[in-house]
Amino acid sequence: MIEAVGLTKRYGDKTAVYNLSFQVRPGAVTGFLGPNGSGKSTTMRMILGLDNPTAGHVTIGGYPYRKLPNAPRQVGALLDAKAVHGGRSARNHLLSLAQLSGIPARRVDEVLGVVGLHQVAGKRSKGFSLGMGQRLGIAAALLGDPQVLLFDEPVNGLDPEGILWVRNLMKSLAAEGRTVFVSSHLMSEMALTADHLIVIGRGQLLADMSVKDFIAANSAGFARVRTPDTEPQAREKLSAALTEAGGHVLPEQDGALRVTGLPLPRISDIAHDNGVRLWELSPHQASLEEAYMRMTQGAVDYRSTTDQKAGLQQPLPPGAQPPVPVPGQGQPGWYPPPPPQQGQPYAAPQAPAGAPEANPYAQPAGQPGQQAPQAPAAPAAAPANAPSAADLTKPEDAR
């Protein structure tokens, strides 16, 4: 078990972690979440004794990492997949780690097989891709068959098959009773992998609970309601009726309504009483990503701004209407709706496969005062004494 008590780390006048206390218990995959710069990597480095805390302490199995007897046999970690001597082969890299920790050499071949690198074991690691480097780092973490494992962004650079493999590996390790602590920014992957979450922001603890409880505490489901597109007056009528009944209604960009505060049967009854036909009435359960964004929106240090495209925006084509702003969009607590499912009759038409995307900087066709481009003229017949392609031997002639 990993236990942090009052953990604090300062770098000069910068406080990376402040008064952080939590426990990572065995038998479960614990996800470690937080925005960039929130202190996740610093916390992991303090757990492994790579950084000394300014205040507080952290222990593994009741001991600081530096006092663990033969720590590599008890704790395995992947913090930086690039921390490998590029001139060594994968096997020699793991063999050197094994010899330093008194691990039998046969274990090297075992973990190479576990991570799928046995066929490239003799190749130098400097030629490895990011995904192969991640697999080599995971192999190093598993080398001593430890009971405690820490992984910082273990799926970076992996293909879908590799991501699935890491997910199943984490779950199987936890099922064996090991302590598994995983940091990641992929919310969808954490929702499928983690059993418990520890969330920090600006170095402080924001949440320490199960995934299910975290979603329930930091998000609210809503109903997605759609009326016929040919009856805009019905949409306004229904919106007013739902608001009068105590619901909170927000329009979505595709014309649907997002309704909170009313159960689906009540929404259906209100629509029926007002004579409004419904094309859609569906529940939407919040995802881990939505709950995470809602909780951490005040702890994000790096925010993007709207691209004004000063001097680059082209005039709208004749008859085109500017986009209508959606009320509530950009405000705290507002999140875009999920994309429409394929096969829905009201889904926006998709561009045909292979069709070129519109160039936002191209001059719109049909502008007043512009002429349509002329089709290129057919090439003239080559003279009888013109050289053939085989005669063009010089690169400049070939051009």
Automatic annotation (TrEMBL):
Residues 343-390 have a biased composition (Low complexity). It holds the Pfam family ABC_tran. Keywords: ATP-binding, Nucleotide-binding, Transport. Residues 2-227 form the ABC transporter domain. It comes from the Bacteria. Residues 303-399 are annotated as: Disordered. PROSITE patterns: ABC_TRANSPORTER_2. SUPFAM superfamilies: P-loop containing nucleoside triphosphate hydrolases (SSF52540). Residues 315-326 have a biased composition (Pro residues). Belongs to the ABC transporter superfamily. This is ABC transporter domain-containing protein. The lineage of its organism: Bacteria, Bacillati, Actinomycetota, Actinomycetes, Kitasatosporales.
